[in-house]
Amino acid sequence: MWYWAFRFLFTIILRLFFKFKVEGKENIPKKTNFIVVSNHASFLDPIVLGLAIPQKVYWIAFQKLYSKFWLRWFIQKMESIPTGGSSKKAIYLLTQGKNIGLFPEGTRTNDGNLKKFRRGAALLAIRTGRPILPCALLGTYRVLPWWRKFPKLFLPIKVKIGKPIYLLKEFDEIVDDLLLQEGTLRIRRVIEKMLNDG
Fold it and tell me: How far apart (Å, rounded) are the C-alpha atoms in residues 16 and 30?
């Protein structure tokens, strides 16, 4: 209930105060659940992506965010998953037909550039056989970079949704390290190209 209530509220805010645009909704898988993977430029990112994707997404949230009461309350209402043992929970939810979202850079960029990706997204994809849904967030760094307390209003925010990436079409319990590395680089290259294309 809270998820959809917040979604409704933030949809109004983004439409009123930002030139919110979504491209590539036709790429969202219709016959399977998926793993949303995106660059991480701002505190706004999970909210913006949550509005861009019609289906509910369970986000993996940095454990440190739970230290603040108001933020912990919001994250829990959104049914996010704290880091630290999150892989098991995420794998379980994926096998139950739920969608998982994560930012493989780990933290927000401090200069607007794409950082090195961690291997969690590729691991989930290989372990469950679910596709990666690559997304590129454009504009959120300008609106609310890590050092600002309040967002700049009336700047454009765009979400680009790419075609699904299948690292494996069937799940695999044994994860080859080379496959994991190649999968991570493949995901990053796709998102980097989407960002560069603007």
Answer: 30
The token pair at 59 is 């986000």
Write the pLDDT tens digit of every residue in 41-99: 999 999 999 999 999 999 998 656 555 656 666 667 677 787 766 688 999 999 999 99
Domain 2-197 has CATH 3.40.50.620: no
Residue ranges per structural domain of the chain:
2-197
* Residue where the block lists tokens 């493989």: 104
CB burial of residue 9 (10 Å; 0-12, 13-18, 19+): exposed
Tell me if 194 sits within 8 A of 55, measured CB to CB: no
Beta bridge partners of 132: 35, 165
Q: Go through the chain and tell me how many residues it has.
A: 198
Q: Is the dihedral of CA 103, 108, 110, 112 positive or negative?
A: positive
